[in-house]
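Whiteboard transcription, Tuesday session. T.W. wrote the C-alpha cells on the left side:
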C-alpha cells in the first residue's frame, strides 16, 4: 500500500526552470538563479494540511458516534498523504519544511485519530484499556522519527517497517467493513474487542520492526514495467470505488500480512537481498527523468539573512 512518506521523495527535488517558472533572477554576485513561484511551493503543503483536516474530522465524527464516516475520513487522509509527495515531485518543490510538516500531520491522522476511534469503539468502558491506544500512538511517532533518521526521510524500494498510514487505515477501515453483510453473517460473533486489542499491539510492533514493506511503484507509460503498474493500479482503483467497504480493510490487511509472510519465507530459505533495500534506488524514474534535483530557496530568504549568510530564525 501506501505510505505518506513518499512526500519526502521531493525533499531534494525541484529547482529546475520550466514553463511558468517566473524567469531567472540575479543574486548578489551577479549569478543567475531560478526564481520560484511561492504558490507552487505551497501546493504540496496544502495537500498535507488537507490530510490534517480529515484526521481531525475523523475524531470529531467519532465523538458523535459516526464511526463509519470517521473511518472514511482517515482513508481520505491517506489518499492526500499519498498525493502530496507526487505533487511535490511533479512540481519540483519539495522541502525540508514539507517533510517535517508531513511527519507531524501523519502522527495525528494515522496515530491519534485511529487510536481514538478504537478507544471509542471498544475500550472506553474499561479502566485501563485506553493504554492500548497509547501504545499504538507511541509506535506511530517512534516509527516516524526512526524513518526520518534511518531512511533520511526518503523511502527507496522498501519501507523499513510497516508504514504508519497503512496501520492507521487498517484500524479505521474496520468499522465500515464490519457493516457489510459478509461480516454480519459470518464474523459478527467473534470477540472483536480482544481481536482489535491484539491487532493494535501487533501493528505497533510491525511499525517499529525491520520487516521490509514494498512501496507503491510509480506509474508511467514509457517502460513495460510502468505500463503494467499503471494497469494494476487502475484495476485496484476500480475495485476500491466499486466495493469500498470490502476493499480497503481486506487489501490493507493482506498487504500487512504479506510483508510478514515474505520476510518469514525468506528467513526460512536463508536468503539475503542482493542489495540494501533502504539505500538502493533507481537513478531515473519510470518516465526517464532523474529522481533527484537541487532546489534553491534563496529567493524565499529575507534579503538581510541572504547577505549575511545567517540561517532564518525560528518562529
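and on the right, the sequence the group agreed on:
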Amino acid at each position: 500500500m501506501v505510505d505518506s512518506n513518499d512526500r519526502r521523495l521531493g525533499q531534494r527535488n525541484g529547482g529546475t526552470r520550466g514553463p511558468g517558472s517566473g524567469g531567472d533572477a540575479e543574486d548578489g554576485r551577479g549569478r543567475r538563479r531560478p526564481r520560484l513561484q511561492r504558490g507552487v511551493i505551497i501546493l504540496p503543503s496544502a495537500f498535507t494540511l488537507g490530510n490534517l483536516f480529515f484526521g481531525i474530522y475523523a475524531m470529531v465524527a467519532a465523538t458523535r458516534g459516526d464511526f463509519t464516516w470517521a473511518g472514511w475520513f482517515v482513508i481520505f487522509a491517506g489518499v492526500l498523504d499519498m498525493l502530496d509527495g507526487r505533487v511535490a515531485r511533479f512540481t519540483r518543490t519539495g522541502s525540508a519544511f514539507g517533510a517535517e510538516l508531513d511527519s507531524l500531520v501523519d502522527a495525528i491522522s494515522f496515530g491519534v485519530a485511529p487510536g481514538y476511534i478504537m478507544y471509542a469503539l471498544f475500550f472506553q468502558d474499561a479502566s485501563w484499556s485506553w493504554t492500548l491506544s497509547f501504545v499504538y500512538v507511541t509506535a506511530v511517532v517512534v516509527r516516524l522519527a526512526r524513518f526520518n533518521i534511518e531512511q533520511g526521510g526518503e523511502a527507496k524500494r522498501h519501507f523499513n517497517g510497516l508504514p504508519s498510514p497503512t496501520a492507521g487505515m487498517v484500524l479505521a477501515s474496520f468499522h465500515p467493513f464490519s457493516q457489510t453483510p459478509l461480516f454480519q453473517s459470518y464474523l459478527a460473533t467473534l470477540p472483536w474487542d480482544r481481536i482489535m486489542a491484539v491487532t493494535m499491539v501487533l501493528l505497533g510492533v510491525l511499525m517499529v520492526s525491520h520487516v521490509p514493506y514494498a512501496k507503491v511503484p510509480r506509474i508511467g507509460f514509457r517502460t513495460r514495467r510502468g505500463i503494467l503498474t499503471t494497469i494494476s493500479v487502475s484495476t485496484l482503483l476500480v475495485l476500491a470505488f466499486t466495493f469500498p467497504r470490502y476493499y480497503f480493510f481486506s487489501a490493507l490487511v493482506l498487504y500487512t500480512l504479506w510483508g510478514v509472510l515474505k520476510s518469514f519465507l525468506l528467513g526460512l530459505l536463508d536468503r539475503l537481498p542482493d542489495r540494501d533495500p533502504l539505500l538502493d534506488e533507481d537513478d531515473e524514474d519510470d518516465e526517464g527523468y532523474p529522481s533527484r534535483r537541487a532546489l534553491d530557496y534563496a529567493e524565499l530568504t529575507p534579503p538581510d539573512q541572504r547577505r549575511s549568510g545567517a540561517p532564518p530564525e525560528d518562529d
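Someone added at the bottom: The beta strands are 24-26, 32-34, 158-160, 212-214.
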